Structures are given as C-alpha cells and as structure tokens.
Amino acid sequence: MPKLAAPPRPSSPSSPPLQTGDGRPVRVVHLAAELAPFARSGGLGEAVNSLARFQAASGLWTAIVMPLYDAVRATGANIEPVGAPFQVRVGPRSETVRLWRFNADPDHPLAATRVFFIECDEYFARPYIYGPPGSDFIDNARRYACFTMAALVALPTIAGREPVLLHAHDWQAALAPVYLRTRFASDESYRRVKTVLTVHNAGYQGHFPPTTMSEIGLPAAIYNWRQLEWYGRVNLLKGGLVFADAVTTVSPTHAHELRTGAGGFGLDGVFVALKDRFVGIANGIDQIVWNPATDPLLAANYSSASLAGKIDCREALQREMGLRPTDEMPIVAMSARLVAQKGLDLILGNPNYFAFDAQFIFLGSGEPRYEQALEAMADRAPNRIVVELRFSDELEHRLLAGADMCLMPSLYEPCGLTQMRAQRYGTIPIARRVGGLADTIEDGVTGFLFDDYTPEDFTRAVMRAIDQFEEPDGWAEMIRTAMSRDFGWELSATKYLNVYHRVMGAVAAH
Fold first, then answer.
1. What does the pLDDT read at residue 135?
2. CATH code where residue 211 lies
3. Alpha-carbon gap, residue 166 to 152, rounded angstroms
4. Model confidence pTM above 0.70
C-alpha cells in the first residue's frame, strides 16, 4: 500500500494543547477495532489513524489501542510485549491477555503516536476481523468486551498516571464508558477518566440477546430502556451513547439525520436526548498522500493548473482494466464495499444505468449477491464493464486518477472519504445528498447530487453528469474547482480538540 505521509512533527509547544483546570496535561487514548495500516475493513481504520496523527502533530499526547488480530501480525509490524500476560474478568470467564506495543521507525507516520495491541488468541487469532464475509462471529460481544476490559485494565501502563481522555470509536469500543461508570466506578483514578464516543456508522450497533449482560459482566440494573435495552435486545452502541461524556459523529449533516426517525437507525430518541453533548465533525483526508501532483503511483502527475497528466492516467487505466481505448465516453468508477448501504440496489435494479454511453469500473468486494450480479454484467460487456474484487490502495489511487466520475449513490453515508479523494483527483462524484456527501460536494459545481433513493432520481443525476462531460470547457472548469477544495484534517482535528476541552472542563454526566 502507499506509504502514509506524516504530518509535521510536534514543535513542543510551551503549554499542552489539552490540560485540566489545574494545568495538568491530558493524555488522549483512542480505542478502536480497526487501525490502518494494520487491520481495517472500511474507513474507520483510516479515520482513526489520520485523526491521531494530526493530534500528535499539534503536540497532544496521543495513543491508540486495538486488538492484535492475525491481520496485524501478517503486516510484519515490529511489535513487542509490554510486561507479562495478565487476567481480565469478563462476566463468568477469566481471559488471559497481553499488551503489545508497536515500535515505529522515526520516519514512520505513526512515530509520534503510541500504538498498542491487546492480545487474546482465543478471540483475535482468526482469519477475519468481525466474521466471514456476510456474517459475524457469534461471540463478538465477548470478543470486544474482552478487548475493552483489557484496555481499561492496561490504561495506567499505556498512559501513566496523568489525566486521561478516552476516545472510543463505534460499537466495538462503546463498552468503555459503560464499564468505566459501572465496573470501575469505585476506583477514584478511573472515575476521573473522561470519555468521548465517535459514531462512524450507526447502522452497526452491536445487538445481542439479553443473556449477553451477564456474559460480559454488566449489572442487570442497566438493562432498561434508558440505558442498554433496545426492543428486547442488548444494544452496546446505545449503552456507550448514554454513558459517554460527549458523542460525535463524522459529519454535521449526519448528526442531523441521526436525530430523525428516518435516519436514526432506531436510536433517534437517544441522539436527541444527548442535546449539546452530541455534535457532527466531518472527517478529512491526508492531502499529502492524496495529491495527484506528487503521487508516485500514477502513470503521470497533474494539477489543477495542468491537467494533461490526467489524460495519461485515463489511458493507462483503460489499458490496465482491459477497456476499449476511447476518449468519447466517460469512465464511471465505483470504489466501495459491495453492500446495500452503498446503493448497489439502485445500480443493479435500474435497467437504464448500463445503457448509458460510458465505461464502468467497480473496485471492492462484499456481499456475494452483489459480486455475482456485477460479474455477470461484466461478462456480457467486457469492453465496457470491469469488476475488480481484489481491492488495493494502489489500485484505488490509479482508479480515481484515471476515471472521470465517481459513483456514490449511497442509501446512507455518515461521512465518506472516497468523494473527497475523487475531487482531489479531479474525478467528479455522482452521489446522493446524504450525510458527509451533502457536506463535501457542491451540486453542479464540484459534483452531482440527487435526493430520492429511486432509480429515476439517480438516473437524472447520471444524465446531468454525462451532459456536462460532453461540454469540454465546462467539464474542465468543474475539475479545477473540485481539485481546489480543502479536505485536510487540520480543521477537523481542531473541532475535536474543542470537544475535548469542553469534556475536560465539565462534570461527568453520570
């Protein structure tokens, strides 16, 4: 994969960016199930990586803790154990775990951020992160309860005795604020730990049967409609929302959507009840890595001032993908997990879509029904339709540089990263006006948006894009405008710091 670029090294500011009221520096510890480049299934791992790196660059003491999956070991990362194995109690079970640390080379992007891993071979020495394709491991509640409990037990080793802000990500880490206010409530040092929970994808909440409460060591008293109960099930994300000191999601528009019955995934009442404890902060992208002027993975480099290299990238992509060489029709690309959320039903259920005079490339894997349906389409028109199920970062760079349009007809999209990368590379997104897509694409200026999740509205957006493509001067102006947009992490990291300041200065909510 391409080497992630490191942000500027911290300059040892005279006072820490985050401190308590009495001037003690605060240490931030991220708890996440995924982290690029070690193990990830979607955008979560990249978002956590980027946020932590930019926080460290600002002078904030930052660490990340994740499970030690087989995928981590497969990367060949230089890791070493920290202390001896230890026991953690998860419900009726006692698990043997161990803390490991990543030894980063000085020029590694994560060199300024401390990365730790929780080892528990019974739970994490498996070939998949969450389960085989299309399914989940039946013990995922225990797996992530063990991970969270072990991280909390190891917190003094990870962060020392300084004040800690624990930043948990998604349902897999949502037990952290729950355990802190229940299992660790009698320990004064843990009571001082403040928590922020970021919801990257509320479509995944961690639903389990009621017996899970005892299995993961939670008191029966909090299995109620205000805390962890949700329609007769345990909902781990809901528990995290209720017990966290602050909650964020990954775009302002998505924060609004989550407060509605139509967009709240059954938790809209919980999000509304959070009031000002809940905010939306858009993700960013690494604009050093995603820079067509310097990207070493491209057939030719280019910029908004000189677009000639993009034509070379387009021709190289056609050769690589086996498409007929032509400049008379646009290349429409889709780089995404092939799941219902990404709008595959709109594409495959629309007989008009593949009738457009265009070439189509799909990059990514997912549900077998979508993979098989797309491959069947490609078999019927191999010169116009290509499906590549083997995703790689390198190919995504070449795809977004060589394509003309990027398709994102999502059913919902909390933030999305691909539309920002595409604009950075002068590839115009066609997307549904939801979540972060609405926040980062300007309709008719840097992309084409549609509102209704219907074949008709989707088709109209594609037609608008193709009509614009046939006007070379207007199309070139749209490319230049899209490439000029700033999607860097700097502003987002500042907004997270503002949330941290508010949390550290507030009385815990529970």
1. 87
2. 3.40.50.2000
3. 9
4. yes
